[in-house]
Structure formats: C-alpha cells, structure tokens
Amino acid sequence: MNHKIAVFPGSFDPVTLGHVDIMQRVLSLFDKIYVVIGINGNKVPLFSVEQRMEWLKAIFRNESRVAIAAHRGLTIDFCKQVKAGFIVRGLRNSTDYCYERELAQVNRDLCSDIETLFITSTPQYAHLSSSMIRELIQFQADVSPYLPDIVRF
Amino acid sequence: MNHKIAVFPGSFDPVTLGHVDIMQRVLSLFDKIYVVIGINGNKVPLFSVEQRMEWLKAIFRNESRVAIAAHRGLTIDFCKQVKAGFIVRGLRNSTDYCYERELAQVNRDLCSDIETLFITSTPQYAHLSSSMIRELIQFQADVSPYLPDIVRF
Amino acid sequence: MNHKIAVFPGSFDPVTLGHVDIMQRVLSLFDKIYVVIGINGNKVPLFSVEQRMEWLKAIFRNESRVAIAAHRGLTIDFCKQVKAGFIVRGLRNSTDYCYERELAQVNRDLCSDIETLFITSTPQYAHLSSSMIRELIQFQADVSPYLPDIVRF
Amino acid sequence: MNHKIAVFPGSFDPVTLGHVDIMQRVLSLFDKIYVVIGINGNKVPLFSVEQRMEWLKAIFRNESRVAIAAHRGLTIDFCKQVKAGFIVRGLRNSTDYCYERELAQVNRDLCSDIETLFITSTPQYAHLSSSMIRELIQFQADVSPYLPDIVRF
Amino acid sequence: MNHKIAVFPGSFDPVTLGHVDIMQRVLSLFDKIYVVIGINGNKVPLFSVEQRMEWLKAIFRNESRVAIAAHRGLTIDFCKQVKAGFIVRGLRNSTDYCYERELAQVNRDLCSDIETLFITSTPQYAHLSSSMIRELIQFQADVSPYLPDIVRF
Amino acid sequence: MNHKIAVFPGSFDPVTLGHVDIMQRVLSLFDKIYVVIGINGNKVPLFSVEQRMEWLKAIFRNESRVAIAAHRGLTIDFCKQVKAGFIVRGLRNSTDYCYERELAQVNRDLCSDIETLFITSTPQYAHLSSSMIRELIQFQADVSPYLPDIVRF
Fold this sequence. Notes:
The structure is a homohexamer. The first copy, chain A, is an alpha/beta fold. Chain A has helices spanning about 15-25, 50-60, 75-80, 95-110, 130-140, and strands at about 1-10, 30-40, 65-70, 85-90, 115-120. Chain A is globular, with a radius of gyration of 15 Å. The model of chain A has no long low-confidence stretch (mean pLDDT about 95). The interface of D and F includes residues 28, 29, 94 and 115 of D.
C-alpha cells in the first residue's frame, strides 16, 4: 500500500461543511485522497449517486490531489484497488467513537496494511450528521447553513 | 508548519508496547516524528526523564525518522519549535476520547495550523495505560508482557 | 419567544411513568407546557395519535398549565407557533445524551431564541424507553408497572 | 429459580468466536447453560434458525452441560420455563453497556429472581458484532477468522 | 422552595466564557440566580475567593437578578438557605454527564424539593473546563480568548 | 482455581447499601465469597481497616459463605491465595465500565484462570460511590439512607 494515498469514505447524502472541514485538515498529509461515496444496496439514499458526485467534484474542483469516486462494496476493497495506505474518518462524539473503533479494527483484520486515521470534528460541526440533515430536509427546514454553497436542491 | 513533521507526546512512564505500536502505524506518514516526554512539574514520575529518554532512544535506534526529546511546558509550544504540523495520539476507549477531544480542540485554539491525528489502539493494547502499569509495578506484578524488551528495571 | 412557555416533545408511544415524572419536576418553571406528540411519517406507531392524546389529556386533566397537542414536522416549528422559549427533555443515559446534545444544538441553529433544558431521569425510570416498552408489549409482557394507571389497552 | 442453570441468549446470526469465548469463560459456574436463539418476528435473519441451531449443537457437542434452544418471545419467559436463575451476556463497549444495562433492569422488573451476569469480551473479539459480520458477508468479505471452524457457508 | 430562585454552583477558578454563556441562556427562567463559588477545603484554588467574587460581580453588575456568593459546604445547603428550587449546570460531554447525573441524584436524595436543570454547552465552549484552563495558565499560554474581558491577571 | 470461590474486592470506605445489594445478588453462585478490603498505601482512608472489617463482619454475620479479609497488594494475588476462580464487580455507569473493563483485562493477563463477573447496580444505588459518600460525610450530610443500619459513626 502507498502511504501517500488515502481514502475518505462516506455516504455524503448530502455533503456537509463537516465533510469539507475534515478533508481540508488532512489534505496536506497525502499526495492523493479519494473521496468515496459508499453505495449500500440496503439503503435508499435521499440524493442520487450522480448528484453527490457532482457536488463533491465541484467542491474540490481546484484541488488536484482530490479524486471523487463511488464504490459498491467494502471500503477496504476500494482501498486495495487504489493502493491507499490510509482511511480518514471524522469523530463527532463518543457514540460515534465506539462504532468507528469497531469498523477500523475490522478493516485492519481484513487488510493489515491499511490504517484508519481519525480527526475530531470542529466544534461547530460536531452535531452535524448526514442523517440528521436528511431528517431536517424532509421537514423543509433550512439546512443551507450546514452545507457548502454549491450543495443546493 | 511543516506537514511532514509530527509530534507524539506522552509521559512514557514507562514506555509500553502500546506506545510503540502507535508509532509504527503512523511512521510512514511523516519525514520526522518527535517522541516527546512531557515534563509536568506537578507530578512525580516513577522513572526519571533520563531513563525514559534512554528507553525511547534504544527502541527507535534504527529508525532515522524518529527523534526523542523532553519538554517542560505545553506540547503546542514544542510543536511550534520544531515546526510540526501534526500531533499524534492513540485512543484507547471512550473516556479517553472525551479528554483527548478537549485537548485537541484547545491545541487548535492555541495554534490553528497544528492538527491532532488519532489512531485507535490495537485490541490487545487497548487496556494498557501507563498509570495502570505504574500501579502494577508498585505491587510487584510482572509487567514485562506489556513492555518492549528493552524496558526493564 | 416567551420564557414562561415550554414544549415537552416525544412520541409517547405509549406514555410512561418516566414521561409523567419529568413533567411534574419541571412544571413549576412555566406558565404553560405543551406536551407534543411528534408525528413522524416514516414510523408506524403502536398506538394511534388519538389514543395517545386521550391518555395525555386524562393524565394532566387537573393541571391547567398543561396543554396536549400533536404536530407533524419539526419540534422547533411547533415552538415558534406557540412562542415557547424552552424545550424540555429527559436524559436517561450517556448514549441518550450524545443524541440529545446534537438535537439541542440543531434546534439552537434553527432558532437561537429557543433553549433545551434537560433533567436526568429518576433512577427507577432510567431504563424505560418507549421503544423498549413497545417490544415488551409485542411479546405480551405485563408493562403496567411502567405506565400511569390510565394507560391501559 | 435454580442458580445452577443459566441462559445465554442471542441472535447468533451467525455464531462467532466471541460467543464461544464468553460461553467457555462462564461454563464452570453452572450445571446447565441454555444457548438460546431469540426469534424476533420483525427481523429477517441471514441464516435460518435450523442452521444456527446446527452450528451451536456442533460447537458444543462435547459439552454435556450446554443445551441449544430457540425461543420466540421474551428471554425472561424462556428463563422461567427452564428455571434459570441467571442470564449471561458479553459486554463489548460502552454503547453496548448502556443498552445491556436497560435490558438487565427490565428483566429484573419482570422477574426479580433472575439476574444478568456480564463478562467483558476478550480484546481480539471486542469489535465483533453479528451485525457487522452480516454486513461483511453481504459484501463477500472473508469472515472465517471471526467464526468457529464449523461455521461455514 | 421557591421555583423562581436558582443556584448556579461552580469553582469558577477562573470564570470562563462557558460559564457566562450558560447563565445568559437560563436567566430568563428565574427571578433570582445565585452564582455560588464552592469552597472546598481539600483543594487549593489558583485564584482567591475574593478575586473570583470580584470577577463574577463585575460580569453580572448590570443584571439585577444575579447575586454572587461563596459557600463552604454542600451546594444543597446553600440552596436551602436561599430557598432555591433549582440548581443549574452545564453539560460539556458524556464523561461530564455521568458525574453530573450522580450529583443531581444525590442532591435529590438530600432534598427532594430541589431539581437540577442541565443545559448543553455551546459548541465553541464545550472543550473548556476550568481545570484545563488552569493547566494552560500554569504553562503561560494565552487563555484570554476563553475568558470574559474582565477576567485578566 | 476453584470456580465455586469468588472475591468481591473494594475499598468499602464506607460500606454502602450498593455493596450489600451486589453481594446478595451473586451469593447463590458460589460456595464462598471473600469480601476483600484493598489496602492502598497511597490513599489515606476515611475509616480504618479495622472499622471496615467490623462493619462487613456484622453485615454478613449470618452468611456462612461470606468471609471478610483485608489485603495489601494486587487483588489477583489474593485470588490466587484463596484459589478463587472469579472476581465480582458492580457496574454503575459507562465511565465506570471503561475503567472496569481495563482492570478485568489486566487481571486476565496476570492470571488467565480468573474471570471477572459484572452485575449492573440496582437503579436506586447506581449513583452511590464510596468517594461521593465520603465527600458528603465531610460536609456533615446525613448519609444514613445510603448505608446499612450497622454502619454508623
């Protein structure tokens, strides 16, 4: 695995300022970061994969080190394909932490060459989860303060 | 700050296999990692700074990217001195997480150019804290399975 | 917003002694508390809105400061309608806390004039969630010790 | 209730090395432990009850104190049927703990003669939940390192 | 007890923006709030009681509903003296929550007429504890961004 | 080790109703339970070892299966002396859980034949820690509702 390549996986349904914040804070560590939209056959997303890819591409259009992709299957399999040595994840709270710890360990079991790096969310974004935002959207709340300017619908 | 330089701060009183494990897992990310023994005037350590530096130097003697140092004061001040762009910390459990999150945010407040990266401890080391080991030592327990071979006393 | 008016939102599916306990402990703070049944289009409740309203009305029939309502949409929108300055919530455990903290902050983002007040549940009710009780009901367990006398079915 | 009889309830969908580890560590406490597959009408399991029973029977075939059963309904009702004085559960992390605490207290409310005993999972199994493993299976990951030799599909 | 009177207890060693934020958010609920500096014989404070009282008086000098006091002993005894019906506390994270829950319940045991109300800290103050700030001061960090303008030393 | 022998370690400074509750709930599992007062050279207890032993002996005077002891050193060493196969501990909350998990794993590392069994505290005792009670005593609070009748001073 190449330690200069990382994967930042998520549902990005929708992309939030929290996602962008984490990317910007770890970008300098790598030569290439793949922002990967996980496609999970069991869940019906609110926004199409195409829409989410478009948003991510627009947000990072001036950042040559960032590539956008979508992947059906395990994140670790995508990492192997692109030879990424690291997975990047944000930590928002301690419930989050418990789940992320399990996932990171499973990924190490599946491929011992790939490590997960965590970064704690910036305070003003710590309460932002995509699921919370989807619920707000459903009830017509104005979620624009939580989203990059380009994410409008 | 230089994003190829990191600081791994701790008391290392004593150095454990958990510390070494974290170092090995993040080493490839950086050109230089300073392992920094924090000197806290309020606490009386079990092992002298000299002893701890000697252990760390011996453990990483073949690793040219690792430098060992001791620092009295805030970790962030040491980071500024060596122009480190990242601090590296291990996360062992959710109580740990709450404290580490606070510390990381304080450090960002003090210097917005320095980020803290976290890595979750390997399961077999997740229950190893230096304070637990000091307590075991005090009661003459055999703590050698928790320590690098070189850490003997 | 009027700081003498509060909203106590929930699913109340069914109403438990835990809900009643929280109401009684905060009632003196306000001139009016709206107990609001949240209607969530995505979930099929076990008991009808009518049934839940009837129970709540009966429980608080002698309490002139309590009003019962049902609301489809965001709690914060209901608060604005009735000019409530506070939302009241019980905290049962630390997983609860993580979720409630996020929700409270989202509500402050949506309307900075409305604050969420928390009260920790009384020990003997701390393990009572409506979802746990629904599961017990489904398996024909006797849940009457968890419910106000009037809540029978 | 008979304090020499225990119940170890779960979905066992599939049986993991974590389950076996917990059984082996508490077995000496009891004359009889019923490993009970909970049948929950609301969830569609990945593996049939028959398949799960077969695995459990094969795993514990040489252990005369272990009996395998399936039960539709509350665990506590099964305990009463077999006069078990104890329920045995593993604890994997602090989120787990919050839920398990609630469940244990509900069971004491329903039957004050039955206690729940907890044992913390062995570090290398602490990140293994059946739900995580089902997700891995769905994406064709090799989960065999997490499973007893006999659990193959 | 008078439900229009509250007590906001703390060490206030030193007073932070986090403390002021919590006061401002609950002030409208009460006719009188006593900000009470707890004097604990076992701990040596960084700032004298006189200094802390002076800061608090200056901060709330235009707020006729706020009174500043110092108290040696249990908070609940002070509440009884001033007939306060409520104690107000901020919640910063889930470790905090566990401790605060215990304290609130002990206070209810000691005096069932006094309830503790919690409010979650504003994100940008969630990582500010007085103990963290004291540690920063000790190492000559600039903590002024965390403190009201009047708190200088 | 003998699986019919257990050790219930603690400071018991003082003995609370919470301790007695846990003992009563696990007593039927064992032929012998040693209630062991841990003597820690670093901490000055509020009550003498003699006083604490006297209380425990009085509380369990009619329970032939219970033996009272005091031990300086590691709990695991006492377990080996009396050939206890199990350590019993109560769990009060999730912060507790994190610490207890570590301790249990350290004890398994030191002696793989000894397991720690946990039982969650009864709700009305979940907020009772000996340290909280010592603090209350110091401020002359009436702590008698938290203590067995025989524990008076």
